[in-house]
Fold:
Amino acid sequence: MRIDAVKAWRTALVVIGVLLLLLGAYVLVDTVKPIKIAGIALWFVLALIVHDGIIALVTFGVAFLLRKAGRTVPIVVLAIVQAGLVVMSILAIIVLPAVYKKSIGTKNPTVLPLDYGPALVLAWVVIVVITALAVVGYVALARRQKNRPSISQD
Amino acid sequence: MAVVLGRLLGIAFLVCFGTGLYSHFLQEPLPWMVFPTRPQTLYQVSQGLHITTGIVCFPLILGKLYVVYPGLFQTPPIKNFVGFLERASIAIFVAASLVQIVTGLLNTYQWYPFPFPFKQTHWALSFVIIGSLAIHIAVKLPVISRYWTRSRSFDAEGNLLLDDEDLPLTRADVAVELAETTREPVGPISRRVDGLTGRLFDWIDSARPRTDSPKQARVSRRGFVATIGVSAAAVVALTAGQSFRVLDGINVFGPRKNFVGPNDLPVNRTARAAQVTDALTDADWQLAVSRGAVVTTYSRADLEAMTLHTVDLPIACVEGWSQMATWRGVRLRDLLDAVGAHPDEDLRLTSLESAGGYRVTEMGHEYAQDDLTLVALEVNGKPLDIDHGFPARMIAPGRPGVLQTKWLSKLEVI
Structure:
C-alpha cells in the first residue's frame, strides 16, 4: 500500500472511530444513570483484572511449564497437548456459568433445560481421548518415518 | 499471527454490530423505516448469527489477547503521550469487548448479576467497541497491510519473512556494535531480548540451547491457529442448535433446546411473570380492533368461526434461540379490513400483561398487511398454551419474538 493511501485510510479510520466513541458515550450518558455507569466502569476494571491478571497469567504459566517440562518432547506433541487443554478451557468458560445459573434457578424451566455439568465432563473426556490418540498417532507416524530410508525426504 | 486472528475477530465484531443494529431498529424503528418481510426466516438467521458469532468471539478474543499478551509488559510501560493514549484506548477496547461478550452470553440465559442495565449498555458499548476497533486498525495499519496477504509475509517457498529485528545478527551488525564499544565480548554474541516474556523464555532456553528451527516455529504457529479454529468450531457446533435446526442433534450446551416447553416450544416470558392470570383469559376475554371511532370486538369463539389459515413461521428470540412452528389463526389483514384500515396504516398492539417494556408495541404496515401475519389461536396442532399467549397472539414473518405480542387485548390502527 502506498504511503499516502495508508495515511488517508488512517485519517478516515480515526475520524470514524472517534465519532463512534462519542456516539457510544452519548448513548451511555443519555440512557444509563450515572451510578449504573460507575457499575460499567467497575466491570471494565474487573474484566481487565480477571483476564490479564488471572486467565492470561494461568495460560502463560501452563505454557511456560509445558515448554520447560517438554524440552525433550517433540514440538508437535507439545502443540497437540496444548491444543487439547485450550479447547477444554474454552468449553469450560462458556459452559460453567450455565451450570452455576441452572443450580441457582432460572426464570422458567425452558431456560437452561439441559444437563450442562455432565455434558461438560463428557466433552472433556472426549477431548482427552482425542488428544491422546493424536499424540499416539503422531509418535507412531514419526517413528515409522524415521525408520524408513529417507528417499523422499529433504 | 496477531493479524490473522485480529482479522477474524474484526469480521466477527462487524457481523455482531450489523445484526445488532438490525435487531435494534426492528424494535425501535426510526419513523421512515420499512423492513423486508421475506424471507420469513430473516430475523431467525440474523439474530442466530448475532448470538453464534458472539459465542465464537470467546475463543477468538482469548487467542488474540494471548498472542499480544507480552505487549502488556513492554518496558518502559509508557513511552510518551501518544503511547499513553494508545495503551488507554487498548484498555478500553479490551475491557469493553470482554464485558460485551460476557454479559451477552449471560443474557442468553436471562441472568443479570451485573450492576447496570443490559439492553442500554449492550447498545452503547457496541459503538464504543466498533469505534475503538477503527482506531486500533488505524494505529496498526502499517503492520496489518504488510501481513494481510500471504505473498507479502511469505516468500515463494512459504517461509515467513520477518522484521529486521527478528533476523539473526549479521557480521556487519556485529561490526557496527563492536565499533561503538571499547570492551571485548567474552561469550557468544546474540541479540538483546526485551520484555518479561522474552527474558523468561530466553532463560528456559538458555539452560540447554534450544533453537526453534523454521519447521518448529511453523508447527507452533499453525498449531495455535488450528487450536483456536477447533475451539471456535466446538463452541459453535455444541451451542448453535438453539438457533439452527441442523445442529439441534448436537446441541448439548445451548441455553435453549428445540421442542422443550409447552406446545413443544421454549418460552421466554411466562404468563405468571407477565401477571396474566386465568381470570383475564377466560370466556369473557375479548379482542378489540379499532380504527378511530370504529371498534369491532371478537371473542375467541368469534375468531375461531372466521376463515382460519395455517402458516409455518419461526419464533425467533432476541436472545438467539429460535424454532419453526406451525401456527393456525385469523389473518390479521382480514381483521383490519373489517374496520376499513388502509394498506399504509400502521398498527398499535396492546397485551393483557400488566407491565413490561413490550406491553404496548407498534407494527409497521408491511407486516400488518402481510399474508402470513396471523392472530394465532393454535400452535403445533393444539390451542395456544397460556405461556404462549392464549387466548390469541400475534405471529408475523421476520420479527423478533418480543414483538410477537402474546395475550392480545387491543389492536389499534394508527
About this structure: The CA atoms of residues 95 and 120 of chain A lie 7 Å apart. Residues 73-154 of chain A form one domain. Chain A touches chain B through 72 residues (CB under 8 Å). The helical segments of chain A are 3-31, 34-69, 75-104, 116-147.
